Amino acid sequence: MLKGKSYFLPIVHAESDYKTPLFVGDKIAIAVKVGHIGNTSFSFLYTLKRGKTLVGTAKTVHVTINQKTRKKIPLPSTLRSALSKYKSTAR
Fold first, then answer.
1. Distance (Å, rounded) from C-alpha 77 to C-alpha 47?
2. Whole-number pLDDT of residue 86
3. pLDDT tens across 55-80, in order?
4. What is the pLDDT, as a whole number, of residue 5?
5. Cβ neighbours of 54 (radius 10 Å)
6. What pLDDT shows up at residue 25?
7. Rounded distance, CA 62 to CA 9, Å?
8. What pLDDT was estimated at residue 90?
9. How wide is the angle at C-alpha 64 spanned by C-alphas 61 and 68, nearest 5°?
10. Distance CA 82, CA 37 (A)
11. Share of the chain above pLDDT 90, in %
12. What would you measure as the largest C-alpha separation in the chain, in angstroms?
């Protein structure tokens, strides 16, 4: 996704909430949706389920930076378009 691009997408914030314990060997499903899309950043929203039971949620915030200068830059239009396809309607 980033090969040959002039930008990086570092994680600048991460948070998680655990709803119920997990144990070694538990099989879980992780669903990822796009949350907020801003001018220079966006977020991913994660839900973790064991069967039908919600066991956790998480969020990561990524910022778009120029590879050389390491300064924030606006989201490239191609990235914004791709993210918009997976935007969550929930907050």
1. 27
2. 87
3. 999 999 999 999 999 999 999 999 99
4. 85
5. 13
6. 96
7. 6
8. 58
9. 140
10. 11
11. 88
12. 45
Closest by Cα among 77, 66, 69 to 37 = 77
Pair of tokens at residue 40:
């220079």
> Is residue 38 helix, strand or coil?
coil
Joined tokens for residue 81: 């378009």
CB atoms within 10 A of CB 48: 20
Length of the chain: 91
| 46/30 Cα distance (integer angstroms) | 7
Using CA atoms, how far apart are residues 8 and 13, in angstroms rounded to an integer?
15
H/E element, 84: helix 77-84
Q: What is the pLDDT of residues 19-57, one digit of tens each?
A: 999 999 999 999 999 999 999 999 999 999 999 999 999
